[in-house]
Amino acid sequence: MTQMYKPLMGRNPDLQPELWLVVGKGCVFHPQPGQWLWCNNQLFSECNHVVIGHYGGKPVAVTFQKDVPEAEQTPVRSVLALQDEALTLLLSHGLQILTAERDHRYCGRCGTRCEGKAGEWAMVCSRCKACYYPRISPCIIVLVHRGATHDQQEVLLVMHNRHVRDNPVFTTVAGFIEPGESAEEGVIREVLEETGIKVKNPKYCFSQNWPFPHSLMLGFHAEYESGEIQLDNKELCQGDWFELDKLPPIPPGFTIARKLIDKFIQS
Ligand SMILES: [Zn+2]
């Protein structure tokens, strides 16, 4: 049966968890193959945890553990690759709440310990009362295309230095939005910086939450305007124009990069 995940809108200290999502560094610790949550468990209830929502109607808590002996261990990205909507929501939400708690343990203004605020996800300084909400970092991700007609269309895809060894796929250009910049300006700057290509008419398509560690990916299509490919070698090792029926290995279906490529092909 497909379960639903309904996130809480803030901490509820009175809610007792019945299920546990247990994450480690880059992985999920789970009780059995294919079973992702632990049922009420003495071991985890003694540890630092946060109730984050309801999964299948039951309150679910998230906790970070360094090690769980005899647990199954699956990389977070492999869990997301299952494309189980409720599980993806639960995991993305849980990871970002844990990141926010870890990053805001101390006040950035006065250095005093922060506490979780009931009814919100904010951490509040116990001395100066400064309030720290979970950080969400907007990024742009863009499929650049050129060609007069649909039959002649080519798309610009690049390969990252950090992916070349373990996961050599070609993907779309992406980067963080800078302070003071609109998303559209970010698209134009980022493509120029990374590939030397000037683009125009960025068109927003859709967005995706990406909890590594707290990105909100804003997906665009943009048209080629001018320039030759000149890669930023610090980040990229390959980049080229590809015809739609001769695409290289590209990212899997759960990624926004792939959704941008698929949307363009189907348009
Ligand atoms: Zn403070």
TrEMBL record:
| GO molecular function per UniProt | hydrolase activity
- Which of the seven top EC classes does this enzyme belong to? hydrolase
Names of the cofactor(s):
Zn(2+); Mg(2+)
The EC number of this protein is: 3.6.1.22
Q: Does the keyword Transmembrane helix apply?
A: no
State the reactions this protein catalyses. a 5'-end NAD(+)-phospho-ribonucleoside in mRNA + H2O = a 5'-end phospho-adenosine-phospho-ribonucleoside in mRNA + beta-nicotinamide D-ribonucleotide + 2 H(+)
SUPFAM superfamilies in alphabetical order:
Nudix
Would I find Metal-binding among this entry's keywords?
yes
Q: Which family does it belong to?
A: Belongs to the Nudix hydrolase family. NudC subfamily.
Spell out the protein name for this chain.
NAD(+) diphosphatase
Q: Which organism is it from?
A: Endozoicomonas euniceicola
**Upper classification of the organism:** Bacteria, Pseudomonadati, Pseudomonadota, Gammaproteobacteria, Oceanospirillales
Query: What gene codes for this chain?
Result: nudC
